[in-house]
């Protein structure tokens, strides 16, 4: 192959300049945190979506950055034995999944490695001494998601709903997503059909802005109840009563319909105001012996099948004897804290979303958990206050968003000093950074990856941190 790079001599150093559309052979060494293959060309890191460890490929450069390069596969010279054909028809276009081309066994191995890579990059821990366990997977890694959030656009007068293609503003219209529960696929597709059948506008031509932004559909795996939230840019929905009546007529499984108003130009789905439109204000979901009330904005894990495994791992990490006081920070509807309740002396949970706390209180009452209290507010506000009042937790459990724990919260952990800190993470990078921040006060006993999102590069991880005695 003709060399397409240039050498600029500066003293005795050879600097390799990589250029756009340049082609070169590459051996893939590992999978990155976003599911892309990683190789090195002349000591420069190259990210290649769709490439797998051990593969020898020819790539073409698509973007050049100061510290790394992005490229696409032109030819696979040597395939990985773990490469498989992706069953999704829009897999190459849609940005929702990243690993359908990798066998499931390979995905589980890759996700453990992603956790290790994050620790290598963001901590100074001795990884040879660290217990990073094998990833806990699923028996059937398909149709596992209980909630879809499909963006809505108007194309030639017709409503489309789906996901945006990776790194672009192109919306991929999706009727059948094979990682979604069949009920969410059915309901979202039928709502699109209703909108198109009755010419309900989803875009305001006069104001040049969307009316309907997102269709959010959530199903209770065990109850079959479906909840629909229509996210709009303003309170007025054209032909709202007709839309609601048709949803109720065509989709009897939909027992809760709500509207959320989000006027801001943002990637965040929900705005601050939610309006109940029809049916119940919440749906029910069961995990083992627990039944949860889920209102429109309440957080709940997206994979109920794996959630029981995840929470059981959190319970193991907490190691409760019946005498501990437990804080469930970022508690949502109280799922983790209530899961641990039978081994705790007292549970206190908090969240900044009032609707979630209202659901947590209802759930605690329903389960007969009388030793749990729930508060609207942040842990960094409440825990120091409780400490001054003489109440200190023995165990803190946290399941933060992908951005990780707020530094004020971590400072609160340092101040309050619970004996155990159980960190349930959905982002290995922020987990590693937070562990590094706490390492002088806490020892990492082990990390247990759990695959909550098969076919994607996401991995959850339960970490047990123990307060140092020195």
UniProtKB/TrEMBL annotation:
Catalytic site: 426 (nucleophile), 426
A GO biological process held by the record: methylation
Record-annotated TRAM domain positions: 17-75
Enzyme Commission numbers on file: 2.1.1.190
Binding-site residues, S-adenosyl-L-methionine: 301, 330, 351, 399
GO-annotated molecular function: methyltransferase activity
Entry-linked InterPro entries: MeTrfase_TrmA_AS, MeTrfase_TrmA_CS, NA-bd_OB-fold, SAM-dependent_MTases_sf, TRAM_dom, U5_MeTrfase_fam
EC supergroup of this enzyme: transferase
Family label: Belongs to the class I-like SAM-binding methyltransferase superfamily. RNA M5U methyltransferase family.
Protein name (Swiss-Prot/TrEMBL): 23S rRNA (Uracil(1939)-C(5))-methyltransferase RlmD
Organism: Rossellomorea oryzaecorticis
Name of encoding gene: rlmD
């Amino acid at each position: 192959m003709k060399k397409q790079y240039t050498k600029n001599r500066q003293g005795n150093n050879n600097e390799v300049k990589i250029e756009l559309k340049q082609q070169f052979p590459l051996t893939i060494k590992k999978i990155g945190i976003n599911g892309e293959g990683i190789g090195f060309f002349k000591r420069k890191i190259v990210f290649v979506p769709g490439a797998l460890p051990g593969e020898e490929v020819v790539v073409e450069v698509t973007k050049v950055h100061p510290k790394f390069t992005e490229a696409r596969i032109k030819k696979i010279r040597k395939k990985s034995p773990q490469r498989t054909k992706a069953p999704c028809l829009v897999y190459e276009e849609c940005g929702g999944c990243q690993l359908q081309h990798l066998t499931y066994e390979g995905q589980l191995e890759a996700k453990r490695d992603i956790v290790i890579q994050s620790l290598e990059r963001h901590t100074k821990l001795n990884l040879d001494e660290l217990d990073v366990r094998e990833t806990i997977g699923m028996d059937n890694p398909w149709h596992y998601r209980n909630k879809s959030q499909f963006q809505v656009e108007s194309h030639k007068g017709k409503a489309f709903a789906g996901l945006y293609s990776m790194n672009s503003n192109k919306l991929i219209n999706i009727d059948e997503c094979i990682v979604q529960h069949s009920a969410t696929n059915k309901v979202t597709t039928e709502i699109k059909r209703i909108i198109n059948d009755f010419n309900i506008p989803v875009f305001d031509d006069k104001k040049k802005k969307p009316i309907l932004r997102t269709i959010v559909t959530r199903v209770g795996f065990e109850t079959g109840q479906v909840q629909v939230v229509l996210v709009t840019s303003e309170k007025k929905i054209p032909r709202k009563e007709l839309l609601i009546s048709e949803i109720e007529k065509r989709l009897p499984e939909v027992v809760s319909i709500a509207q959320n108003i989000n006027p801001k130009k943002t990637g965040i789905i929900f705005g601050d105001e939610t309006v109940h439109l029809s049916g119940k204000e919440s749906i029910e979901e069961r995990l083992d012996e627990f039944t949860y009330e889920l209102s429109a904005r309440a957080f709940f894990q997206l994979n109920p099948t794996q959630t029981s495994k995840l929470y059981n791992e959190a319970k193991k990490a907490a190691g409760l004897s019946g005498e501990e006081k437990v804080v469930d920070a970022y508690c949502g509807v109280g799922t983790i804290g209530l899961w641990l309740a039978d081994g705790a002396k007292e549970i206190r949970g908090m969240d900044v979303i009032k609707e979630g706390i209202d659901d947590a209180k209802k759930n605690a009452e329903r389960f007969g958990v009388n030793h749990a209290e729930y508060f609207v507010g942040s842990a960094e506000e409440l825990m120091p206050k409780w400490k001054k009042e003489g109440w200190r937790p023995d165990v803190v459990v946290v399941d933060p968003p992908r951005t990780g724990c707020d530094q004020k919260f971590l400072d609160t952990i340092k101040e309050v000093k619970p004996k155990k800190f159980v960190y349930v993470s959905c982002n290995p990078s922020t987990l590693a950074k937070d562990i590094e921040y706490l390492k002088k006060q806490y020892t990492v006993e082990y990390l247990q990856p759990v695959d909550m999102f098969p076919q994607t590069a996401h991995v959850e991880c339960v970490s047990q941190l123990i307060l140092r005695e020195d």
